[in-house]
Queue: 3 jobs
Job 1
Amino acid sequence: MVATRKCIFLDSKNQQITYKSFDDPAFVEVEHEDGWYLRVPQKDLNQIRAAHTTASILSPFSFLYLKYKEKSQEGVLWCFIFDDEAFFATFKDGKPIFTKIIDELHEYNLEDLITGFLHQFYDQEESYFIERIEIFYEEGSIYEDPDLEDRLLLPIGFNKIDTDQICQNPAVSKYFFTIKKNSGMTIGMNKKFVMVVGVAVLALLLLYDLFLKYQTHTYTQKIHQLVDSQMHSAEQNNEYQSKILRIERIKPIIMQLRDRNELLATKLKNLFDLVPDTVYLTKFELNERALHIEGVAKDRRAFLLGLNKKLATIYKQGSYDLKRTKGGYRFVATYEEVQHD
Amino acid sequence: MISIDFHVNKKDLYLFALMLFFIFVTYIFANFVVMRDLDEYIDKKNKLLFQQTLQKYIKQNAQDAMMQYQSYKKYEPYLLTMSQDYEIKSLRSLLSHYFVVKDVKLLEQSKEKLLKSRYELNLVMESPKRFFIFLQDINKKAYPFKLEYPLRFEKADDKVAATLYLSIYTFR
């Protein structure tokens, strides 16, 4: 089975004819043999593609060009009419000289359209004398007016076209628009897009790498700072620990001697405070658990009540020798603490 | 039958090659430069985290040691006074600030944790008050002195003669 190729004519008014190629991703171009281009916005083609999924798209101007090449006639006004639109073109040396698209055809009659076009065409510098008009049309687009030739004074060829037949022509297929697809491999992707995306990805990677390098550098500096700080803290810690260890070693002895000295001071002070004004000490010997005192008291009572009695409350055992002398009562006394086992 | 247009022209192939080139360059750059830097970055980050944890630990230790040291600070002057040598001459000199020093005798020395030197002191003072000032200063100035029994005071003319026993603790 041979697939029947279907095609449709492009009815976009945005078709432009240029003599050089523009690398514009928003447009689709079709190159023609004699070095001219037909360009159409991509979005117009997308709209047609959405309505006709698989049909190939051909510009009426490309079709008229083919007919011009086929018949090899100069001085002809080529006209293509379908639906509600008319496409006019004049060619010279293989290139379109002047073209026009008219829509809403029902508002005009064919004669006015042709005369209007001819007036505009003859205003062009490159215009030439039109000797014949060739009209191609789909069935039902216009009615053939046999008197039109007489009124325009030009021979007119009315050519009814069969679109399906045209599509089978291999010469036509090379002027089909190639619609850029958005998916599948890289077909349709344009150079700028790839360049921009590629450079952007590389730039992002480079930026990311720079960020990593910067962060790594910052972290390295922070680590150095921390190590320095740790060294300082460790040195300080060692210093403290060393002092603490040395102090801990001597602390029991320090406490012992401080306690002993304070105890002795208190004990001595208390004992001296007990001695009344009427008693005069000449000797005082303090042992750990005993006290030996010698001295002179004003009278017997001064010693016994003023000193001996008080000392007897501190030292449980005591003995004294009291003798009357010239200056008073001389005493020798010894007191001892009771041993508690 | 469905027919599909699949036009591959030179321009598309060029773009495809360009894209492959970018993918290749990106791969090389990512694999040999970015990944290496990323490894180094992660390594440094982990090291930093470790150092930060260590820092906290060391700081806490130093703080604990400082707190403990603060409570021991009152004993610190003893480290200095215990490092000094208290020979008879220097001891006489020190005692002469408080008393008239008649005699200083070293009785014995013993060494355990510290060197303990036991002295007999024969002193003369104006009044027992001088002795109390001396006792006060022992603690105030952190002298490593310990008064031992017996303490003997005797009237000599208008002064007081004292025989005291003093143990001195030093590091050597």
Job 2
Amino acid sequence: MADHDVLVLGAGLAGMRAAISAHRAGANVAMISKVHPVRSHSNAAQGGINAALRGTDDSVDSHVFDTVKGSDYLGDQDAIEYMCIEAPAEIISLEHMGVIFSRDEEGRLGTRAFGGASSARTFFVADITGQAILHVMYEQIIKAGVSSYEEWFVTELIIEDGQCRGVIAIEMLSGETRAITAKAVIIAAGGVGRAFEPSTNALICTGDGLALAYRAGATLLDMEMIQYHPTTLAGNGVLLSEAARGEGAYLLNSKGERFMEHYAPKMKELASRDVVSRSEATEIEEGRGVDGCVFLDIRHLGREAILTKLGYIHEVARDYAGVDVINEPVPIRPGQHYIMGGIKTDVDTRAWDVTGTAGWGGPTGLFAAGETACVSVHGGNRLGANSLLETVVFGKRAGEVATEYARSISDFKISESHLKDAKKRMKAVADRKDNGLMTAAMRLEMGQTMNEHLAVFRNEEGMQSALAEIRAIKERYSTLPIHHKGSIYNTDLIFHTELGYMLDVAETIAASGLLRKESRGAHFRKDIPDRNDEEWLKHTTARLVNGVLEVGTLPVTMTRWEPQARVY
Amino acid sequence: MQAKVKVQRYDPEKSAEITFQDYEVEVPNHFTVLDTLVKIREEVDPSLALRCSCRAAICGSCAMRVDDQARLACNTRLASVVEDGGEVKIEPMGNQNVVKDLVVDLKLFWDKVRDIEPYLQPDVVPEEEFIASNESMLNLLTPMGCIMCGACVSDCTALEVDKSFIGPAALAKTYRFVADPRDDKTDHRLGKMNSAGGVWDCTRCYMCVEVCPKGVAPMDRIMQMRDSLMESGVTNTSGARHVKSFEHSVSNSGWLDETMLAVDSWGKFNLPKLVGNLPLAFRVLRRGKFPLPAPFHHKVPGNKNIKRIFERISNAKH
């Protein structure tokens, strides 16, 4: 008998939303996460969540178009329509759960302006929106009594006859390895920021879900689309929210000029993130930066507004850059932040092709939602505040569809060989002899390579060298030992495994970057700087075929919007 | 800068003993305690276990005791706790069971939070959003800013001696709902807080306010709930009677009548409690430390001015 109807891998916003949705649909559901749910990286999202809720100058169509344009026309328009149509109801649902959204003078939900949006449609809680929503979602998990495997680290998906049957996981507290079976598995394990150095991402963002799905035969989509956020701190790479720009912040170069006026005459600082990041990188490259940075200036917003609406930014700049943003501009630069690509799913979050004719594959019974997935709603570039939206809309959908799927299939028992073989593989790694290789040093090498060649500006030579470098590190990784041999809370073992995940995903990023012979969205090639709709209005795919990485393409779904020149 | 980092080690697989291990480090001046521990873990000792994630004081994973005070490792500059060439002590959080090294079992913490029904409970849910003023939402920003790191629970002196105390984190979380205009269980929540282990068991030691990295100030939230209870006339607890007796004797005589404070708190007619404390009374009397109650409790000169202060505060409040 399967342990659960639905197992959710990851307990951040998308994961918890999926679990609540499955629970409400009557499923026997459990979450499994390597950290306590509220430690998930969703808590670091700051700016807000988009919806065309109401308003005379806003509409769902406008939200859809902004998102399509923001994606540089690579987003699948049917998925984007679905997300934007569902958005208003989800915001209300979150507010009913207890999120303390900001209000207007009439006591109704209030909005702020945000990047790439033609209308102010970002609902927010100061600059801690992610934390505010995540904690409320966890309150709902407590209320519903959804069970979770807390601090369990998944090492494999169990696949039998092309069907996903559950996971192999280590209970971190005891070091015991177990098989947990489920009729449906939803992956909501976030992005892979730590494959880059620096990154805004937490240390736990190591692409676990992406690699697990990839290794199980799922298709990864648009992996070259890596978002570099315009305003990250120079030191530890921590994020300063777009909310600052939403509230009216300026970006200044070393001459004190608002340089965005040249690059995006209309939207200026609130152009899409890839445009802003490229502008900053250009200013810095052309000598108008200071120590590799430009400046974020919010002095003119005033002390009151800063402390009320941007309190966390004030705290972060003070604690990590030694700058009081009330009185000084703070040095910032583009930093890795988010991946638009991910596990390919259909609009109903399935990670396999139900039709059987669309030319992509994945194990049946596998679902994905949130940053981990690529539906694709963000295409080549994500608009700020669309990520929080994506997590709850598709998290909810995944819970519903996975429950339906679980009901449609019969119960099963898996072969004992899965767990036995998994343990054998783990033992082989644990038995490796010391050879001087260190996990952290290899991760740093990979991170620096990725940040150099797969960042804001790319070219053929750089990406080739990155791919070669990643493959060389992978070779060495196959001999990397585990230094700490204990069972209880062995983080050395965890980091070792995570490095493997990151290397697999990094390889798909580099390979996809080389495949796309144009510039679109966040993928900007100095050797091919123009967008080529005729040949490249398609998604890139990366998949393991007989253990070897194969890249390919898939068509983009267009409903109503033809690609236009993308000017901000 | 250079520093000696003394880290508490515990590995139940190896030994039941708790030991300290010294690491000599050389790190950049801007390094945080977390940066330092991660460097030790990555380059020197991969067996060191600690929780950490965001490095930016928002996930709440890395709370630990640095030189005997709970803080987040990620927003504590090493240079702020140790001089060049000095020593710093790192231990896991207090009041919880240690799993390994700096990793504790947060069961006590989460059990307390779960017990207070930490989710919005409105009686009627509208079609669209609840109408609520921005002021009321901004007022909730402070308790909502809690990242559940456990620092307050770690250093709570009341919890140290009485694990039945609900604790600062769960109490601050209760306030978050009491103060939310959309929640309709205020009386029920305050009622729970008014009973054993609740708001009146806080000793006002201020540790939680001092160690909270997010300015939640749990003690202040606890006091706000005490105020709410007393203002709504719920005064049949020893804690509330304690407050009233305090106010009464100081405003009338200018100083505290300690004996009446004890009697009033227990309850003037609480015979079993009064009789039960007679041995204590005799011991105190024998040592010559028995404070004389009214009518021997005299008024201090100038006590009328103290009364005026009380009146001025009362009027200002209302």
Job 3
Amino acid sequence: MPGGLYLGVGRSVPGSMAAGVQAHSGDVIVASDLTRSYRGAPPAVERLSLTIRRGEIFALLGPNGAGKTTTLRMLSALIQPTGGHVEVLGLDTRDPRRLDEIHNSLGILPEVTGLYESLTAYRNLQFFGRLHGLSEATIYERSRALLTSFEIWERRNDKIETFSKGMKQKVAVVRAMLHDPPCLILDEPVSGLDPEAAKTLRDFILEQRRCGKTIVLSTHNLDDADRLSDRVAILRSRLLALDTPARLKEQLFDRVVAIELARPGVGAVEVARAAGAQAAKLEGRRLILDLPDAEGMLPDLNERLIQAGYRIIYVQPVVRTLEEVYLKLLESEARPSE
Amino acid sequence: MRTDRVWEVALKDFAELSTNRAALFGLIFIPALLTLLGVASTYMVTREIAAGHLSAGQASVAIYASLLLLLLIPTTNSTVVGSMSVVLEKSGRTLEPLLATPIRDRELLWGKAVPPLVIGVGGAYLAFGIVFLAGDIFLASAHLPIEYPGSVGLFVMLVLSTLLGLLSTFVSLLISSRSKELRTAQWFSFIVALPVFGGVIAVFAILPQSWVTYSVAVAVLAAVTAGIAWVTTDRFERVTILLGSA
């Protein structure tokens, strides 16, 4: 990414609306017992409580219809919960007198870019900037900085309908950032983008965190969530899990270890089971083991394998992915009685 | 309520509308056609009177009929533009970022009301101006013994245009805020607005032309319009607009 943008975005900018929002050192968003029901349907979101901390990237994961978009809409005060409540920077979203402050402290990127196709990129930004109360000079300066960083400043006077999907997404991100909000809420920010555009946006999100912004995102891309987020919430109407990606992996899976053997044999599986492995299988030359206490069990297991005549080439932990965590959680949620 | 936000929404809608050639054609074609019909019928009436084929009374009825027809302009144009303004925000998925700004529901409603009012009522004012001017010129140049409806007649027509424009605007905004499809919004808006237009035509074309008739008809139309404006203002809520139901 070309330099110059993020210094301007993350720090004080003339006319910034964020300057008008009272700083809260603690949590940026606090949701308590959030429930949202629609007529004639089971609750889209049920008793969801979570806290989003200042300066973190917080990812919402869940299958289609899990309530991610409804949750983001409630967090951004677009709709009110039918139960529970949300506080944004200490402001209750149920209080209509505080909506100006709440909306000025949040930058929203919806699932669909939602730009006016027949208007130019700059006219789109001008419209939203004016609604946020920004001066013409501020709109121009910030648009130039942000659009330049995405390398689309030269296209500012072109109609949105002539833009590619990736370019539209960039303009929508600029729109969310225009009033310099301390918190960004991004619904599927890299969905459907080509790898280059997706990388640009991922870099942008990480840069915003470095500038002190708080970022809430929903995504289907588990790899993105794993790489980007500090904490992950997995939803299926209600909260299934909330923690850092690393701790979720630790909590949900025993330590899996791979031992590569010079001359593998079925007997190695028997040895491993006898040494306490909860599961053991051979994959080619690799003995894959589930060890509840890897550090305590490995020395004894290695010794037993050597005594049984096996030569060990290496021992390596098997890294679980967030996808495995996600699928395991959803599977256990689908079979609650087991 | 902040008028700068109201104005900004209205300006944006005007800018979008100016790029929609199909909509512009429809919005210009119907008023132009009705205005042309008004001018032509006035000219024809003038010739028929001069030829002795029409009495002064018959001429007056014919002139009023052509003028009343112009009231279709605020009814149709305000309905078409009003229906588009909210439904197109929904179908273009632009509503969510719009509602994420500090704009209030009333500011959005009034911002959305300005273009249909300006296009519907403004178009009607222009059409009445042209037809009245043409009528004055034709009748004066033919030295005929009847008077074209004067400033009082013009005033009544402008009041009726304004009320029909307001009614059509608020009806279409209320219905389009609860519709997902443009055709549905326009269809249901016309179902409400056209009978009101028909009622106005019936009152002014059939009942005796007198101040009492005019005053009662205008008062009833004003009361209906005020009622619909109140309901629209009360029911125009972001959650309903965004989700389609409360």
